[in-house]
Write a structure and sequence with these properties.
Length: 347
Protein backbone atom coordinates (compact mmCIF):
# COMPACT_ATOMS: atom_id res chain seq x y z
CA UNK A 1 0.00 0.00 0.00
CA UNK A 2 2.82 2.37 0.82
CA UNK A 3 4.46 1.74 -2.53
CA UNK A 4 1.17 2.24 -4.36
CA UNK A 5 0.52 5.43 -2.43
CA UNK A 6 3.94 6.70 -3.40
CA UNK A 7 3.23 5.99 -7.05
CA UNK A 8 -0.12 7.74 -6.90
CA UNK A 9 1.40 10.63 -5.01
CA UNK A 10 3.94 11.09 -7.77
CA UNK A 11 1.29 11.13 -10.53
CA UNK A 12 0.66 14.91 -10.42
CA UNK A 13 4.37 15.54 -10.78
CA UNK A 14 4.52 13.24 -13.80
CA UNK A 15 1.52 15.01 -15.35
CA UNK A 16 3.14 18.39 -14.81
CA UNK A 17 6.35 17.19 -16.43
CA UNK A 18 4.39 15.87 -19.40
CA UNK A 19 2.58 19.19 -19.82
CA UNK A 20 5.88 21.04 -19.59
CA UNK A 21 7.42 18.75 -22.19
CA UNK A 22 4.72 19.77 -24.67
CA UNK A 23 5.94 23.37 -24.60
CA UNK A 24 8.83 24.49 -26.81
CA UNK A 25 11.98 24.84 -24.76
CA UNK A 26 14.05 28.00 -24.97
CA UNK A 27 17.61 27.67 -26.19
CA UNK A 28 20.53 29.96 -25.50
CA UNK A 29 19.72 33.63 -25.89
CA UNK A 30 15.97 33.13 -25.37
CA UNK A 31 15.37 31.50 -28.77
CA UNK A 32 12.55 28.96 -29.05
CA UNK A 33 12.84 26.18 -31.63
CA UNK A 34 9.61 24.78 -33.08
CA UNK A 35 10.58 21.12 -33.32
CA UNK A 36 8.46 18.08 -34.20
CA UNK A 37 7.36 17.40 -30.62
CA UNK A 38 5.74 20.81 -30.20
CA UNK A 39 3.75 21.18 -33.43
CA UNK A 40 0.04 20.37 -33.48
CA UNK A 41 -2.16 19.95 -36.55
CA UNK A 42 -5.92 19.66 -37.03
CA UNK A 43 -8.21 20.12 -40.03
CA UNK A 44 -10.02 23.42 -40.35
CA UNK A 45 -13.71 23.77 -41.18
CA UNK A 46 -12.75 23.88 -44.82
CA UNK A 47 -10.69 20.73 -44.36
CA UNK A 48 -13.61 18.91 -42.72
CA UNK A 49 -15.89 19.99 -45.55
CA UNK A 50 -13.29 18.78 -48.05
CA UNK A 51 -13.22 15.37 -46.34
CA UNK A 52 -17.03 15.15 -46.41
CA UNK A 53 -17.04 15.89 -50.15
CA UNK A 54 -14.41 13.19 -50.72
CA UNK A 55 -16.48 10.68 -48.75
CA UNK A 56 -19.56 11.54 -50.82
CA UNK A 57 -17.58 11.17 -54.05
CA UNK A 58 -16.24 7.80 -52.90
CA UNK A 59 -19.71 6.48 -52.02
CA UNK A 60 -21.11 7.69 -55.33
CA UNK A 61 -18.29 6.02 -57.25
CA UNK A 62 -18.83 2.76 -55.35
CA UNK A 63 -22.59 2.84 -55.88
CA UNK A 64 -22.48 3.54 -59.60
CA UNK A 65 -19.11 1.89 -60.32
CA UNK A 66 -17.61 5.04 -61.88
CA UNK A 67 -13.93 4.54 -62.64
CA UNK A 68 -13.25 8.23 -63.29
CA UNK A 69 -14.95 9.01 -59.97
CA UNK A 70 -12.49 6.72 -58.18
CA UNK A 71 -9.56 8.38 -59.95
CA UNK A 72 -10.75 11.89 -59.12
CA UNK A 73 -11.48 10.98 -55.49
CA UNK A 74 -8.08 9.42 -54.87
CA UNK A 75 -6.30 12.27 -56.66
CA UNK A 76 -8.03 14.86 -54.45
CA UNK A 77 -7.27 12.74 -51.37
CA UNK A 78 -3.59 12.72 -52.34
CA UNK A 79 -3.67 16.50 -52.75
CA UNK A 80 -5.20 16.78 -49.27
CA UNK A 81 -2.47 14.61 -47.75
CA UNK A 82 0.17 16.71 -49.50
CA UNK A 83 -1.43 19.86 -48.06
CA UNK A 84 -1.19 18.35 -44.59
CA UNK A 85 2.55 17.72 -45.00
CA UNK A 86 3.20 21.16 -46.51
CA UNK A 87 1.32 22.84 -43.67
CA UNK A 88 3.36 20.91 -41.10
CA UNK A 89 6.66 21.70 -42.82
CA UNK A 90 5.80 25.40 -43.00
CA UNK A 91 6.44 25.78 -39.24
CA UNK A 92 8.92 22.97 -38.68
CA UNK A 93 12.28 24.09 -37.20
CA UNK A 94 11.40 27.78 -37.14
CA UNK A 95 13.33 29.78 -34.52
CA UNK A 96 11.38 32.43 -32.58
CA UNK A 97 13.14 34.94 -30.33
CA UNK A 98 12.21 38.08 -28.42
CA UNK A 99 12.68 41.35 -30.28
CA UNK A 100 12.47 45.03 -29.37
CA UNK A 101 9.57 46.40 -27.32
CA UNK A 102 8.27 49.96 -27.20
CA UNK A 103 7.45 51.90 -24.04
CA UNK A 104 4.06 53.60 -24.19
CA UNK A 105 1.63 55.59 -22.10
CA UNK A 106 -1.57 54.16 -20.69
CA UNK A 107 -4.27 53.97 -23.34
CA UNK A 108 -1.84 53.28 -26.18
CA UNK A 109 -0.77 50.01 -27.81
CA UNK A 110 2.55 48.46 -26.84
CA UNK A 111 4.31 46.87 -29.81
CA UNK A 112 5.99 43.54 -29.01
CA UNK A 113 8.17 42.28 -31.84
CA UNK A 114 9.15 38.63 -32.17
CA UNK A 115 12.02 37.69 -34.47
CA UNK A 116 11.40 34.63 -36.68
CA UNK A 117 14.33 32.89 -38.41
CA UNK A 118 14.12 30.33 -41.21
CA UNK A 119 17.30 28.27 -41.17
CA UNK A 120 16.80 26.23 -44.32
CA UNK A 121 16.13 26.86 -48.01
CA UNK A 122 12.34 26.42 -47.75
CA UNK A 123 10.12 29.48 -48.00
CA UNK A 124 7.73 30.00 -45.08
CA UNK A 125 4.40 31.45 -46.24
CA UNK A 126 1.62 32.91 -44.14
CA UNK A 127 3.11 32.58 -40.64
CA UNK A 128 0.59 33.94 -38.14
CA UNK A 129 1.08 35.13 -34.57
CA UNK A 130 -1.69 35.95 -32.13
CA UNK A 131 -2.33 36.12 -28.39
CA UNK A 132 -5.01 33.54 -27.45
CA UNK A 133 -5.89 35.29 -24.17
CA UNK A 134 -6.37 38.66 -25.94
CA UNK A 135 -8.78 38.13 -28.84
CA UNK A 136 -8.86 41.86 -29.63
CA UNK A 137 -5.18 41.87 -30.59
CA UNK A 138 -4.81 41.78 -34.37
CA UNK A 139 -3.08 38.76 -35.87
CA UNK A 140 0.38 39.43 -37.28
CA UNK A 141 1.27 37.72 -40.57
CA UNK A 142 4.75 37.13 -42.01
CA UNK A 143 6.18 35.46 -45.12
CA UNK A 144 9.85 34.48 -45.27
CA UNK A 145 12.17 33.35 -48.03
CA UNK A 146 14.65 30.58 -47.45
CA UNK A 147 17.42 31.36 -44.93
CA UNK A 148 15.78 34.67 -44.04
CA UNK A 149 14.42 36.35 -40.94
CA UNK A 150 11.63 38.78 -40.16
CA UNK A 151 9.60 40.41 -37.41
CA UNK A 152 6.11 39.66 -36.17
CA UNK A 153 4.65 42.75 -34.47
CA UNK A 154 1.87 42.31 -31.91
CA UNK A 155 0.03 45.47 -30.82
CA UNK A 156 -1.09 44.80 -27.25
CA UNK A 157 -3.34 47.44 -25.64
CA UNK A 158 -1.94 48.95 -22.44
CA UNK A 159 -4.95 49.87 -20.35
CA UNK A 160 -3.12 50.63 -17.09
CA UNK A 161 0.27 51.96 -16.10
CA UNK A 162 2.88 49.61 -14.70
CA UNK A 163 4.73 46.66 -16.15
CA UNK A 164 3.05 44.90 -19.06
CA UNK A 165 4.15 41.36 -19.91
CA UNK A 166 3.46 39.62 -23.19
CA UNK A 167 1.20 36.58 -22.65
CA UNK A 168 1.68 33.26 -24.39
CA UNK A 169 1.82 33.63 -28.18
CA UNK A 170 0.39 31.12 -30.66
CA UNK A 171 2.39 30.68 -33.88
CA UNK A 172 0.18 29.13 -36.58
CA UNK A 173 -0.11 28.53 -40.32
CA UNK A 174 -2.89 27.50 -42.73
CA UNK A 175 -0.68 27.20 -45.79
CA UNK A 176 -1.24 26.15 -48.56
CA UNK A 177 -5.03 25.90 -49.04
CA UNK A 178 -6.37 26.38 -45.53
CA UNK A 179 -7.38 22.73 -45.15
CA UNK A 180 -5.20 22.20 -42.05
CA UNK A 181 -4.07 24.46 -39.23
CA UNK A 182 -0.66 23.87 -37.66
CA UNK A 183 0.23 25.72 -34.47
CA UNK A 184 2.55 25.87 -31.52
CA UNK A 185 2.73 27.94 -28.34
CA UNK A 186 5.68 30.17 -27.51
CA UNK A 187 6.41 31.76 -24.12
CA UNK A 188 8.67 34.75 -24.67
CA UNK A 189 9.94 36.63 -21.64
CA UNK A 190 9.04 40.08 -22.93
CA UNK A 191 7.73 43.02 -20.92
CA UNK A 192 7.64 46.78 -21.10
CA UNK A 193 6.80 49.75 -18.93
CA UNK A 194 3.52 51.60 -19.37
CA UNK A 195 3.83 55.22 -18.28
CA UNK A 196 0.84 57.14 -16.92
CA UNK A 197 -1.34 58.85 -19.50
CA UNK A 198 -0.45 62.57 -19.48
CA UNK A 199 -3.27 64.89 -18.50
CA UNK A 200 -4.87 66.37 -21.61
CA UNK A 201 -5.29 69.95 -20.39
CA UNK A 202 -2.78 70.18 -17.59
CA UNK A 203 -1.96 73.60 -16.12
CA UNK A 204 1.53 75.03 -16.66
CA UNK A 205 4.35 73.28 -14.77
CA UNK A 206 5.66 74.77 -11.51
CA UNK A 207 7.97 77.74 -11.60
CA UNK A 208 11.72 77.28 -11.75
CA UNK A 209 13.57 77.61 -8.44
CA UNK A 210 16.79 79.51 -8.99
CA UNK A 211 19.80 79.42 -6.65
CA UNK A 212 20.01 82.06 -3.94
CA UNK A 213 22.18 85.14 -4.31
CA UNK A 214 25.28 83.63 -2.76
CA UNK A 215 25.09 80.50 -4.83
CA UNK A 216 24.27 82.54 -7.91
CA UNK A 217 27.35 84.73 -7.47
CA UNK A 218 29.49 81.65 -6.97
CA UNK A 219 27.98 79.99 -10.04
CA UNK A 220 28.53 83.12 -12.11
CA UNK A 221 32.14 83.32 -10.98
CA UNK A 222 32.67 79.67 -11.81
CA UNK A 223 31.04 80.07 -15.20
CA UNK A 224 33.10 83.17 -15.98
CA UNK A 225 36.36 81.40 -15.11
CA UNK A 226 38.32 80.02 -18.03
CA UNK A 227 39.55 76.49 -18.43
CA UNK A 228 43.03 77.93 -18.49
CA UNK A 229 42.95 79.34 -14.93
CA UNK A 230 46.05 77.93 -13.20
CA UNK A 231 44.51 78.09 -9.74
CA UNK A 232 41.54 75.98 -10.89
CA UNK A 233 43.47 73.18 -12.57
CA UNK A 234 45.09 70.07 -11.17
CA UNK A 235 46.34 66.76 -12.50
CA UNK A 236 43.59 64.35 -13.52
CA UNK A 237 42.79 61.70 -10.93
CA UNK A 238 41.14 58.38 -11.63
CA UNK A 239 37.42 58.69 -10.94
CA UNK A 240 37.07 62.40 -11.74
CA UNK A 241 33.71 63.04 -13.49
CA UNK A 242 33.87 63.99 -17.13
CA UNK A 243 32.30 67.42 -16.61
CA UNK A 244 35.27 68.38 -14.35
CA UNK A 245 37.87 67.77 -17.08
CA UNK A 246 39.37 70.89 -18.70
CA UNK A 247 39.09 69.68 -22.26
CA UNK A 248 40.67 72.69 -24.00
CA UNK A 249 43.71 72.80 -21.74
CA UNK A 250 44.12 69.02 -21.94
CA UNK A 251 44.03 69.16 -25.74
CA UNK A 252 46.68 71.90 -25.87
CA UNK A 253 49.10 70.42 -23.36
CA UNK A 254 48.53 66.73 -24.07
CA UNK A 255 48.04 66.02 -20.35
CA UNK A 256 44.77 65.30 -18.59
CA UNK A 257 43.86 68.01 -16.07
CA UNK A 258 40.69 68.61 -14.05
CA UNK A 259 39.02 71.71 -12.67
CA UNK A 260 38.93 72.16 -8.90
CA UNK A 261 36.10 74.72 -8.78
CA UNK A 262 32.44 73.82 -8.34
CA UNK A 263 30.43 73.54 -11.55
CA UNK A 264 27.81 76.21 -12.19
CA UNK A 265 24.46 75.50 -10.57
CA UNK A 266 21.50 75.45 -12.92
CA UNK A 267 17.96 76.37 -11.86
CA UNK A 268 15.78 73.46 -10.78
CA UNK A 269 12.10 72.69 -11.30
CA UNK A 270 10.59 70.35 -8.72
CA UNK A 271 7.59 68.23 -9.69
CA UNK A 272 6.11 67.55 -6.27
CA UNK A 273 3.22 65.21 -5.47
CA UNK A 274 2.41 67.11 -2.28
CA UNK A 275 1.76 70.50 -3.92
CA UNK A 276 -1.10 69.15 -6.04
CA UNK A 277 -4.71 69.82 -4.96
CA UNK A 278 -5.91 67.62 -2.12
CA UNK A 279 -9.00 66.45 -4.02
CA UNK A 280 -7.02 64.68 -6.76
CA UNK A 281 -6.74 60.91 -6.59
CA UNK A 282 -3.48 59.05 -7.11
CA UNK A 283 -3.89 58.34 -10.82
CA UNK A 284 -4.88 61.94 -11.56
CA UNK A 285 -1.80 63.18 -9.70
CA UNK A 286 0.47 60.84 -11.65
CA UNK A 287 -1.12 61.93 -14.94
CA UNK A 288 -0.50 65.60 -14.15
CA UNK A 289 3.08 64.97 -13.06
CA UNK A 290 3.64 63.02 -16.28
CA UNK A 291 2.25 65.89 -18.35
CA UNK A 292 4.52 68.36 -16.54
CA UNK A 293 7.51 66.10 -17.03
CA UNK A 294 6.90 65.82 -20.77
CA UNK A 295 6.25 69.56 -21.12
CA UNK A 296 9.32 70.63 -19.14
CA UNK A 297 12.11 71.90 -21.35
CA UNK A 298 15.86 71.68 -20.94
CA UNK A 299 16.20 75.19 -19.49
CA UNK A 300 16.29 73.79 -15.95
CA UNK A 301 17.03 70.61 -14.08
CA UNK A 302 14.01 68.50 -13.13
CA UNK A 303 13.42 66.87 -9.76
CA UNK A 304 10.59 64.51 -8.82
CA UNK A 305 9.01 63.92 -5.42
CA UNK A 306 6.55 61.12 -4.76
CA UNK A 307 5.55 59.50 -1.46
CA UNK A 308 8.61 57.41 -0.65
CA UNK A 309 10.43 58.35 -3.86
CA UNK A 310 12.66 61.33 -4.56
CA UNK A 311 14.83 61.90 -7.61
CA UNK A 312 17.22 64.85 -7.26
CA UNK A 313 17.23 67.49 -9.99
CA UNK A 314 19.13 66.50 -13.12
CA UNK A 315 18.96 66.82 -16.89
CA UNK A 316 19.10 64.55 -19.89
CA UNK A 317 17.12 61.78 -21.52
CA UNK A 318 18.22 59.14 -19.00
CA UNK A 319 16.99 61.22 -16.06
CA UNK A 320 13.67 61.93 -17.76
CA UNK A 321 13.29 58.20 -18.44
CA UNK A 322 14.04 57.43 -14.78
CA UNK A 323 11.31 59.87 -13.72
CA UNK A 324 8.82 58.23 -16.08
CA UNK A 325 9.74 54.80 -14.69
CA UNK A 326 9.17 56.07 -11.16
CA UNK A 327 5.72 57.33 -12.16
CA UNK A 328 4.91 54.04 -13.88
CA UNK A 329 5.97 51.78 -11.01
CA UNK A 330 4.72 53.81 -8.04
CA UNK A 331 3.92 52.59 -5.38
CA UNK A 332 5.57 49.22 -6.10
CA UNK A 333 8.93 50.91 -5.72
CA UNK A 334 8.96 53.33 -2.84
CA UNK A 335 12.67 53.11 -2.11
CA UNK A 336 14.79 56.16 -2.84
CA UNK A 337 15.37 56.47 -6.57
CA UNK A 338 18.63 57.62 -8.03
CA UNK A 339 18.60 58.48 -11.69
CA UNK A 340 21.37 56.97 -13.76
CA UNK A 341 22.55 60.20 -15.35
CA UNK A 342 25.35 60.14 -17.86
CA UNK A 343 28.27 62.46 -17.19
CA UNK A 344 27.34 64.74 -20.09
CA UNK A 345 23.68 65.02 -19.08
CA UNK A 346 24.32 67.31 -16.12
CA UNK A 347 26.63 69.65 -17.96
Amino acid sequence: MAARKGVLGGAPGIAQRRRASRRPTGAAGGTVQLDRRHLYILPTRGGIGFAVVLAAMLLTSLNYDISLGFALTFMLAGIGMSCMWLAYRNLLDLAVAAGPVTTVHAGQDAVFQARVDSRDANARIGIEARVPTLPDVATAVLTLDGNASGMLALHVPAARRGRLALPRVAIASRFPFGLFRVWSYVDLEMSTLVYPAPEAKAPPPPAVHRPDDGDGAHAAASAASSDDGIDQLRRYRSGDPLHRIAWKHSARTGRWVSRTGDPPQLPARWLDWHVLPAGMDAEARLSRLCAWLLAAGDDAEIGLRLPGVELPPARGASHRRACLEALALWPQRTAAYRAEVRPGDRA
